[in-house]
Amino acid sequence: MTEPEAPPTDFVRDIVRGDVADEKNDGKVATRFPPEPNGYLHIGHAKAICVDFGIAREFGGTCNLRFDDTNPTKESTEYVDAIKEDVRWLGFEWDGEFFASDYFEQLYEWAVHLVREGKAYVDDLPLEEVRRMRGSLTEPGEPSPHRDRSVEENLDLFARMRAGEFANGEKTLRAKIDMAAANTNLRDPVLYRILHSPHHRTGDTWCIYPMYDWAHGQSDAIEGITHSICTLEFEIHRPLYEWFLEQLKPLGVAQPRQIEFARLNLTYTMMSKRRLLELVEGGHVAGWDDPRMPTLGGLRRRGYTPESITRFATDLGVTKFNSTTDMVVLENALRNHLNKVAPRFMAVLRPLKVVVTNYPEGESEELEAVNNPEDESAGTRTVPFSRVLYIERDDFMEDAPRKFFRLSVGREVRLRYAYFVTCTDVVKDESGEIVELHCTYDPATRGGDAPDGRKVKGTLHWVSAEHAVPAEVRLYDHLFATENPAAEEDWLEHLNPTSLEVVEDAMLEPNLAGQEPGFRCQFERLGYFAVDPDTTDEKPVFNRAVTLRDSWAKAKKKGG
Ligand code: ATP
Ligand code: MG
Prior knowledge:
The two termini are about 45 Å apart. Helix 2 (about 45-60) packs across helix 11 (about 305-315), helix 7 crosses helix 8 and helix 11 packs across helix 12. The chain contains 13 helices and 25 strands. The strands form 6 sheets. Strands 10-23-24-25-21-22-11 form a 7-stranded mixed sheet, covered by helices on one side. Strands 19-16-17-18-12-15-20 form a 7-stranded mixed sheet, with no helix packed on it. The chain folds into 3 domains: about 10-260, HUPs (Rossmann fold, 3-Layer(aba) Sandwich); about 275-345 and about 470-560, CATH 2.40.240.10; about 345-460, CATH 2.40.240.10. A hairpin with a 5-residue loop joins strand 17 and strand 18 (about 435-440). The protein is α/β, with parallel strands linked by helices. It has helices spanning about 10-20, 45-60, 75-90, 105-115, 125-130, 150-165, 210-225, 240-250, 275-280, 295-300, 305-315, 325-340, 550-560, and strands spanning about 30-35, 60-65, 95-100, 120-125, 170-175, 190-195, 210, 225-230, 255-260, 345, 345-350, 350-355, 365-370, 380-385, 390, 410-415, 420-430, 435-440, 460, 460-465, 470-475, 500-510, 520-525, 525-530, 540-545.
């Protein structure tokens, strides 16, 4: 650890602190992170994870991982396993691991209790009809003709729902609250629906499944959660959350507290798992872990560090106001972290051959290079230098303007860690394209400084041709071309057609050979890169995690 940081403060922590001070729940703090296993976690979930686990940590409490698995048709064990991997990767370990499906029997018994108390009834209306008759913000709802069934009849019908006597959609169990309530969530919400679908954990045991609202608060209560932190869209559900718990209070059921905060939104991407699934299934990306995806798996593959993500999430803070964060903020978090920890290497993405005509043929030498100027302990390495080199095509210009501080005929530049070189002439092919540069080097400038004190304006990266390792490098840009694609009806039309550029024949310094997937480094002057799982010994594959500077902002400015 570096300097100790002041723990974050925000309105959620203020509430928790107040409850602890008031000795509520015997001063204990218990939170949970409750993903539905219907997709992979994304950067928005990382924010929730940092809040849920972070608060538990800060208050000496516990945080459970609870899978909210009440929707059997969309959920799977594949997602459960991936979610666990991602939470651990972020650096968090849960206290208890639970599934809402663990509580199906208890939830059923409590539903029976509501029926007995005259607080729930079986309805025969199809779900669409229930929805239609719920009314609107300006009109009260219409009561169902089945609303006043006797307790006996309701008990019997509910038991038969469970026993599988009815088809999907034929019946629901609804709470009997208030069809004229200002909050439409209180207009006799559905607790159970019939769904003859096998569940990834309970198999064929159940054909009725609890709705989110009925499952969530009661699961919190069963686990002894004290603070059930969720996102703002659940704010209008809170009266219902509390109503259910209130009905069960006489049974000695605990009374957790729901607190809502604003979800994370990012520019040029979207967070909805349903839509991310559409991107995957439609083949618009290579999978859930495509490095352009906002999923944790995608970010990891791209080269993001868990530290940069948790730092990003923590720095954003927790508020009650929905807003959209610029993607640059996330990218900067990665730059800041990798700047401190990533070793530097030289790699040339678009090689242009350079022959150092006064360097002896067949010879080479090892030059010392600094691994990380931000971290002395990272030490040095050596890189081979020889007569034939590659530099970046962009670093040469034939009719260069005065301010072009790179290479041109007659100009002198420094090759990083090596020598000053001066371009003497160019070789072109029949089409007039430059295929080779001729340079001379000044042996007195070894290491990169001239003993006579003469200066050069430019320093270029390079690799020795005979030692270079050819590699594939994947360059990524925003997945979407519009800032807020989620707001677009035809959001798929807004995919950025140039979000992936594959460079087939990049040249790496030999120290980059054989690095394993997950290895992250800086290619000097180009950005931060990470080895992709597609890498092989024959052909290393690197992903560009992020450029050194925010080139998008620059481009936007230029474009007006
Ligand atoms: P999606 O809309 O992407 O499917 P969700 O809210 O349905 O997301 P869940 O698996 O139900 O996903 O979410 C688990 C937890 O993560 C919930 O507490 C939810 O509020 C939180 N969460 C989801 N998305 C975000 C986000 N963008 N920002 C902050 N928290 C989020
Ligand atoms: Mg959800």
